[in-house]
Specification:
The complex is a heterodimer of chains A (about 350) and B (about 300). Chain A is mostly helical and about 350 residues long. Helix content of chain A is about 75%, strand content about 0%. The chains are: A mainly alpha (about 350), B alpha/beta (about 300).
């Protein structure tokens, strides 16, 4: 029987612990490499050696040692490092949300941005800001809570639409998402229009997607939060596999579909709410990344979910580095970079796979 | 948990308990509520013996697929009781049911690229013991792999193991879905139109597989079919539904007759005997002889 197992494993026909370790280990190493690379670029370039020394000092919590390195080290430690780290976790979370939504809706183009879930969260957060609940920096924990509520509402609406027929064709689902998006965006625009100009400008900048990192404690809580939700999603990876077979088949395989679906909705809304409240609307990461990863490593969610999270993290870290450097010293919102790379890819998928989707 | 499963197994070994008992089962979809009381399934009572192949036939909308969904526990019976191996469906957990009953649905729409081996291995899901720390990675034991492999041998899909299910032909895909169901090691197999959209050779192939499974594994099979001849040829007994109610239940000889088909399908057909097996054979009348029907249209 071991022959059988190894022959399947060699052909890549089934997921083995070995393959899981190899892929995830490789991606982890790549992630660290990418993060270190991203630290070097910015309005002021920092060479590799300074990056390494600064990280060493930071790990040892050596304030005086860091001070000897001068301005570039302060930029590194105070601004760039938290920002790159946050970009990585926001990207990881967005990709994980994309994977989960795609399995839940059995639709490879589903994404929190395309379906209007992000807009729902953004509306929730905007409302909170409008009524002066929490300021831009004191976003914990009130703003994510509003983001969660708004995202969950949008998600349930979209799901209801998708359920009204046994399986909504891809184009109808996307159309529903577009319309929901338009309605929610109108509300957000309304909110910004009645705000004082200087406050609404800040809101607009946040909406376009920015990864300006908060202080370290807040960043730490955010990273922990994303990690926790990711682990909880991972625990349902097997059920996600079954759900892609359709609800009836999943049930016949012993999956308590109703309970699991509700739990997954809550988890995706929790993650989207937190991400949107810290980084605004960053589109297409959740759609492009899982799609590309699936093409390479297959559909088993036990591997697809963590691999997509890591690739999503790298993708957004790089996208943000581009956003920081391309017009330096000015910055462009990272949402523009992801939309400009992801949008065309999305169109390509839509046109290329048109015949197979409907 | 383990002793529980053993008891279940033992209750299956005793021959006198029917595999499926349906008693006074009624069902209707919530959407028809409030309107006139139309039952999708109307007070059905019957039982299926262990190791029997039961064919469910009837016109479109007579409740065939709904009946399968009630038997698999997907739709709750509004009234009445379904017992599997002597135990009521309502008292069993979804995973418990999954270890007894496997379902091959009518259409398989997988939008993600899963391989054949991955798909068949999913059938082992209800038998796995979850270890929370592993997050499902490497949960497949050697016996899971062996079981999946055996199911793939029986349905002749071993050579397709690393192919993507979405790239297969209709007949191959249907065999993969049956392999996935068999990997579940069920006592009861429910199939919805297993031969629809398949050409002649594949129809015979699927039916022979079912027949062999009944003989070798003692599998109880309930299959919904539009093809009366296929049902007559391969099923031990046939259940004929009319508007959700049981119209006739018995051997193919007892059920398939000119009068019964006229009453249920509302049209006249020719019935003779199969030249080899002697079971009833249904033939659609010629164009010339259906003139009176066309006159009414």
């Amino acid at each position: 029987m071991t022959d059988l197992a190894s022959s399947w494993a060699n052909a890549g026909a089934v997921l083995t612990v070995h393959r899981w370790m190899a892929v995830i280990g490789g991606l982890l190493l790549a992630s660290v490499a990418i993060l270190v690379l991203c630290l070097q670029f910015g309005a002021t370039s920092v060479d590799m050696k300074t990056v390494a020394t600064a990280i060493m000092h930071m790990l040892r919590a050596d304030q005086e040692g860091a001070a000897t390195l001068g301005t570039s080290a302060i930029i590194m430690v105070q601004i760039r490092f938290p920002r790159v780290l946050m970009g990585f976790f926001v990207g990881a979370g967005l990709a994980a949300v994309g994977v989960t939504l795609q399995a839940l809706l059995r639709n490879p183009l589903a994404d929190s941005y395309v379906l209007g879930v992000s807009s729902g969260s953004a509306l929730g957060v905007s409302l909170a800001i409008l009524f002066g609940i929490g300021s831009t920096f004191m976003f914990l924990p009130i703003l994510p809570l509003f983001g969660f509520a708004g995202g969950l509402m949008a998600l349930l609406l979209i799901y209801r639409l998708a359920q009204s027929k046994s399986r909504l064709p891809i184009h109808s689902l996307l159309l529903a998402g577009v319309i929901l998006n338009a309605i929610l965006t109108a509300f957000i625009m309304f909110i910004t229009s009645i705000m004082e100009p200087n406050r609404s400008a800040g809101l607009m900048a946040w909406l376009m997607g920015s990864l300006t990192a908060p202080n370290y404690p807040a960043l730490g809580i955010f990273l922990l939060y994303v990690l926790c939700v990711l682990v909880m999603l991972m625990h349902k990876a097997q059920s996600l596999n079954m759900l892609t077979l359709g609800e009836e088949t999943a049930r016949s395989l012993g999956v308590e579909t109703e309970g699991i679906k509700k739990w997954l909705f809550v988890l995706t809304a929790l993650l989207t709410g937190a991400i949107v409240s810290v980084s605004g609307m960053i589109g297409f990461v959740g759609m492009v990344v899982p799609h590309a990863v699936r093409l390479v490593i297959g559909s088993d969610h036990r591997l697809l979910l963590p691999a997509s999270a890591l690739v999503g993290g790298m993708f957004l870290a790089v996208a943000d580095t581009i956003a920081r450097t391309i017009m330096a010293p000015a910055e462009i919102p990272v949402g523009i970079v992801t939309a400009l790379t992801g949008g065309p890819f999305f169109l390509y998928l839509l046109l290329w796979r048109k015949d197979r989707m409907v | 948990m383990k002793t529980n499963r053993m008891e279940t197994m033992q209750s299956w070994l005793s021959v006198d308990v029917p595999a499926i008992e349906v008693e006074g089962v009624s069902f209707r979809y919530p959407t028809t509520e409030g309107r006139e009381r139309i039952w999708t399934l109307d007070h059905l009572s019957f039982h299926v013996d262990a190791g029997e192949i039961l064919g469910v036939v009837g016109p479109n909308g007579s409740g065939k697929s709904s009946l399968l969904k009630v038997l698999s526990g997907y739709l709750p019976a509004g009234e009445g009781d379904v017992r599997l191996g002597g135990l009521s469906l309502g008292t069993r957990s979804q995973a418990d049911i999954a270890r007894l009953v496997a379902v091959v649905p009518q259409e398989y729409a997988q939008v993600f690229p899963f391989t054949v081996a991955e798909t068949v291995l999913m059938g082992r899901f209800p038998h796995r013991t979850a270890r929370w720390w592993s997050m499902g990675i490497g949960d497949e034991t050697a016996s899971d792999l062996a079981c999946a492999h055996h199911a793939m041998v029986e349905t002749d899909v071993v050579s397709l193991a690393d192919r993507l299910v979405s790239d297969l032909s209709g007949g191959e895909r249907q065999r993969v879905m049956i392999a996935r169901a068999l990997a579940q090691a069920p006592k009861i197999l429910l199939l919805d139109e297993p031969t629809a959209f398949l050409d002649l050779q594949h129809q015979i192939e699927i039916c022979s597989i079912l027949r062999r499974l009944k003989e070798e594994r003692g599998l109880t099979v309930v299959l919904v079919s539009h093809d009366l001849n296929l049902a007559s040829q391969y099923c031990d007994r046939i259940l004929m539904l009319k508007a959700g109610a049981l119209f006739r239940l018995g051997t193919p000889q007892e059920v398939i007759g000119v009068d019964a088909l006229r009453a249920v399908y509302g049209c006249d057909v020719l019935i003779d005997r199969h030249p080899e097996s002697g079971v009833p054979r249904v033939t659609i009348p010629s164009y010339a002889s259906t003139k009176h029907i066309r006159d009414h249209m």
